[in-house]
Amino acid sequence: MKTYLLVFLAATSTVSFSQKPYIVELKNELIKIPKCNFYIDSIIDNRHYKMGMGMIKKGRKDSSYPASFDKGFTSLKTYLAKNIPVNQAKSIPITIVINHFWIWEEVTSMGGYGNFSMDIDFCRKNSSGEFMILSKFTKNIEQKDDDLPNSHEERIRKSFTEALNEFEKINLNIEAKAIIHFTQINTKKNILNFKDLYKGAYISYADFYNNVPNKPSKGIIIKEVEEKKSRFFLQDSVTNIKNSFYAFCDGKDIFINSFAYAQPEYKQFAKVLERGRFILIDDIVPHDFNPSLAAYSFGLAGVLASYAIGSSEKRGILIDTQKGFHCAFTYDNLSIILSEFPELLQKWKDSASYNFKTKRKFINLMNTEIGK
């Protein structure tokens, strides 16, 4: 059964990443920095999942395509080297650490919408060769845009121009104290194992996993979408919908942004029912359930069966954070996953019922077994 699972994952992973990426090209325009005494020596990709950087619309009626630079973030470094006016011989080398970098574009009946969010650290090596954080910059751009094919690169350029100008105000001669540990995961308080939840919004998957909300929850409320009882949306005191957050916690429950698996429903969130190695999301599997999109968004390696789902099994999306796949919460998929737990698999086969409540019970049992 385990051999079958591996073969299944390999086959479905090929389908997930077969879509050709859309290459983002940054226009060469000089970045104006009043007193620039630094240059970008290197860029480090510190994202949890490094394969994709979002989804782009080629046109109003086109499908979404995975976004990518031609040569990864090397292309970004080349752009910055060309467009920051500085004498490197008299300047301080700085490393940009990218923790989150995400492009999202959608087309609705109301028009096009362009979104870009990033979280970066400006770092400098100390005498011991460790990277010290000098400054952090976070940006979220959400705007109505009817020129999507031509404007995504502008949002990226504007964000970096703003970030570099803010960083220019920092005194680079002050020794920073915060050391950055790349790809380090907080194993004690991560979202899978830690019982306590913190109020706030998670901008990236890494923030979500590490259980570190980096936006205050004050003024933000979670409201149910009337026509879809399994969906919610975020709203602040001035009625601005918060689209770009990866997830949100009200102190009691966690809600994940459905952009991770359904293109048109970008502004809606779904509740997390079970946490642990296996995360269960309470949502109706949409007709446009997108394996490629979910793999890029969640940082996953592949998917299990996502199609030909019976009407009685459309509730629930399941994520295995350890093996890196996601799937619709069906009898067949759960049976495959339970093959790793022989005793639980037998109990599952002997169950008198296979409804949603019973299936959820077995997710809880697997997470409990793993946590022992």
Would you give an account of this structure?
- By secondary structure, the protein is α+β, with helices and mostly antiparallel strands.
- The chain folds into two domains: 31-167, no CATH class; 200-371, no CATH class.
- Helices cover 24% and strands 32% of the residues.
- The protein has eight helices and 17 strands.
- It has helices spanning 2-16, 73-83, 148-167, 205-209, 291-298, 331-338, 342-349, 356-371, and strands at residues 22-24, 38-45, 54-57, 64-72, 92-108, 111-125, 131-144, 200-202, 220-225, 228-236, 247-249, 254-257, 269-274, 278-284, 302-303, 315-320, 325-328.
- Strands 8, 9, 10, 11, 12, 13, 14, 15, 16 and 17 form a ten-stranded mixed sheet that branches. Strands 1, 2, 3, 4, 5, 6 and 7 form a seven-stranded mixed sheet that branches.
- A hairpin with a 4-residue loop joins strand 11 (247-249) and strand 12 (254-257).
- The longest helix has 20 residues, at 148-167.
- The chain is globular, with a radius of gyration of 22 Å.
